Amino acid sequence: MSALILGLPVGLLFGFSLQRGRFCMYTAFRDLMFVRDATLFRAYVLALLIQTAIIHLLAAGGLLEIGTLGFPWLAALLGGLIFGVGISLAGGCSSGTWYRVGEGMMGSWLAALGYGISVAAVFWGPLRPWVALLSAYEAPQGWRSLPGLTGLPPGIFLALFVAAGSLWLWRSPRPRVFTGWSWPRTGFTLGLIAALAWVASAATGRKYGLSITGPTGAWMRYITAGDAPNGDWGMWMLLGVPLGAFISAGWSGEFKWRAPDPRRMAMQLLGGLLMGVGAAAAGGCNIGHGLTGLGALSTASLLVVLSIMAGIWAGTRVFFMRR
Question: Membrane-spanning regions, if any (predicted)?
């Protein structure tokens, strides 16, 4: 019951804010690389900085424990690349796909279905041995955190991390006019929600913040086998994302059942399948690594984010810019 009470409201807030801010990290990375528009990327950086500052202040005060992720570098590299190509085909990242489910976009429903199927196939099915092989290539333990990799004291690295991000936000060009919430409002709100997720999930014994991949696979296993292997907070949080987006879209008059042509829907299903394989192999997606893990100063998360960006670049070039 505590998982429901603490997880569902966070998911509702997350989904509502994603929809109001039109926030999708695939769009943020793609626009930054191909049209030099940093509007959504600025929102992402602001959310990351706010979450990072809050959770490390809480940890310094003994109020929160931030776990350390492993660094299976080969799985992070290849998984991130596959995920990046997948979200190019799906037309949205993991969180973007789930909030668009709540807007009535049928292509995103198919992408989410493919995502869940392939995550389950990697975690508990026929692809598990392949990922286990990739995960065997583990970097030295001292490289797991960015302060450890750089040799800087954690407090110094954290201060430099936040200062560099803040300086970039201050100096970057003024963004274009945007529909929905402004990028500062979106980034600020998502950063607070991401920090809240750490606190809410910690109250249930979970030492992590927002994540999409694990809960997606857990829901798929629960629906097909009646088993909830990862139980709980993350599953209820994920359920709240499309529900929160539905509330937001309905409130703003933006909800509408929409279906693209069959070819595009097939591409989105394929994209979802690739997303799940990549995210499960990498141990997380653009949220689990790009927001939560990077906020915890995980080296693996930084590698996954860079690999996702490379996959987006390759996927967009191959599938959409050669026509």
Answer: 6-29, 41-64, 70-93, 105-126, 146-170, 182-200, 233-253, 265-284, 296-320
Closest CA to 246 of 99, 41, 65, 142: 99
Coarse DSSP helix, strand, coil percentages of the chain, rounded to the nearest 5 percent: 70, 0, 25
Phi-psi region of 65 (alpha: psi -120 to 50; beta: other; left: phi over 0): beta
Mean pLDDT (whole number) for 189-200: 98
Whether the Cβ atoms of residue 118 and residue 83 lie closer than 8 Å to each other: no
Using CA atoms, how far residue 229 sits from 67, 216, 219, in Å, is 20, 11, 9
- The mean pLDDT of the chain is 95
> 219 near 235, Cβ under 8 Å?
yes
Give bridge partners of residue 145 from the DSSP assignment.
298
- Residue pLDDT, tens place only, 199-236: 999 999 999 999 999 999 999 999 998 876 555 899 99
Residues with Cβ within 8 Å of 54's Cβ and at least 6 positions away in sequence, in order, are 191, 192, 195
114 lies in which domain range?
Answer: 2-320
The one-letter amino acid at 290: G
Model pLDDT for residues 43-81, shown as the tens digit of each residue: 999 999 999 999 999 999 999 999 889 999 999 999 999
Number of structural domains the chain divides into: 1
Place of tokens 């109001």: 20
